[in-house]
Design brief:
Layout lengths: L1 H17 L3 H7 L4 H29 L2 H19 L4 H29 L5 H29 L2 H22 L11 H4 L2 H27 L5 H28 L2 H18 L6 H33 L1 H29 L2 H22 L4
Helix pairs in contact: 1-6, 1-7, 3-5, 3-13, 4-5, 4-7, 5-6, 5-13, 6-7, 6-10, 6-12, 9-10, 9-11, 9-12, 9-13, 9-14, 10-12, 11-12, 11-14, 12-13, 13-14
């Protein structure tokens, strides 16, 4: 499993490098705020369409083929970013990038869930999440530095190299794994799975706003400062999961997920009112801590459900919920911002995230 985790880290580091730069890059190509939302949504549209299909197929055909194919597409598409000339080019490239992501992340999560010990789901999935988040967390800071020193197009070259490295690691060191649970599709769509999907939608909604519009919201800061703020939020999330997974394995996971989610959303709602970098940094660190508790708890619940309905199927739907949020949120936020301002978008979407958390807690079944 260590080889898989290293591959996930390398791939996510490449993605993280370009995360804070994409809005700036799109603006340089002439994208409006609404078009920026469409660019981000195209990525998640592809994920929403293909993630559940890949999840079900990976239970029967194995994970390795999908992970390798996705990583190969990652590396190739990184080059196309460098030669894009219009915002419309970015829409197409992001769609196929979303397809490749649909092959990699759910399959890798299902792989880890398949190997998790009973009663230690929090520890197993937190290990995966830490590798995932370390890559995403270190990437924005490196991306900001690369932009300031070498230029924005070099960041895409770094992403291509890192995902190619991940491909080689998986090809050489990761065995294939199948999950022959034989679960029918109709059985997966039940109260427990739908409730955990709603929780994932809530957390991804906030993530979409951070990735798509946070760099624009705090554009008065330097690229390195923006990258640092995003990185500290993600790295704090990873550190929390690494050190407090035992809480998730010993206590009521539903309550921990809701507590962490509500606390993180409260911090999110403060972002539009922060006027200086130290305040923004303090908010993102606190938000990252509570996100860590919430994400670890929800992911552990998803692993438990995977034993019943198939890890690929559950992780596919779990990530589909994230994709639906990432697909719709930028467009809605861009629409609101065009008619009011970007700060209002953050407030409205923050309260929507909070509402989803309360619905999750009201409907989750205790197991």
């Amino acid at each position: 499993m260590r080889a898989l985790l290293l591959a996930v880290f390398s791939a996510m580091l490449g993605l993280g490098i370009v995360a804070p730069l994409m809005p700036i890059y799109a603006k340089d190509l002439g994208a409006t705020t609404l078009m920026l939302g469409v660019i981000y949504s195209s990525f998640s549209t592809a994920r929403a369409l293909f993630t559940p299909i890949v999840g079900f197929l990976s239970d029967r055909l194995g994970r390795k083929f999908f992970i390798l194919t996705g990583l190969a597409l990652y590396s190739i598409l990184s080059v196309f970013y460098m030669i894009a000339r219009t915002p419309e080019d970015l829409v197409v490239i992001r769609f196929f990038h979303g397809l490749s992501s649909a092959m990699v992340i759910p399959s890798a999560m299902a792989y880890v869930g398949h190997l998790a010990e009973r009663g230690r789901e929090g520890k197993a999935i937190s290990t995966f999440n830490v590798s995932f988040l370390l890559g995403i967390g270190l990437g924005p800071f490196l991306g900001g530095v690369i932009k300031d020193v070498l230029g924005i197009r070099f960041a895409f070259a770094f992403m291509s190299v890192l995902t190619a490295l991940s491909f080689l690691i998986v090809l050489l060191y990761v065995p294939n794994v199948r999950d022959r649970s034989g679960c029918r599709v109709t059985k997966v769509f039940n109260r427990c799975v739908l409730s955990i999907m709603l929780f994932r939608f809530s957390t991804a909604l906030r993530m979409a706003m951070i990735m798509a519009f946070f760099p624009v919201l705090v554009s008065k800061f330097s690229g390195a400062e923006i990258g640092c703020a995003i990185s500290t939020a993600v790295l704090t999330n990873a550190l929390t999961q690494k050190t407090l997974y035992w809480v998730v394995d010993r206590m009521d996971r539903g309550k921990i997920a809701v507590f962490g989610g509500i606390s993180a959303t409260s911090m999110f709602l403060l972002l539009p009112f922060a006027n200086n970098f130290p305040t923004v940094l303090a908010i993102t660190i606190t938000m990252g801590f509570f996100n860590g508790l919430a994400t670890c708890s929800a992911s552990a619940i998803a692993v438990e459900l995977g034993r019943i309905y198939g890890h690929g199927a559950v992780m596919g739907l779990y990530n589909t919920a994230m994709s639906l949020a990432m697909m719709t949120t930028p467009v809605i936020a861009g629409f609101i911002a065009e008619r009011t301002d970007l700060s209002t978008s953050f407030v409205v979407l923050g309260f929507l995230s909070m509402a989803c958390l309360f619905i999750f807690y009201a409907t989750i079944s205790k197991r």
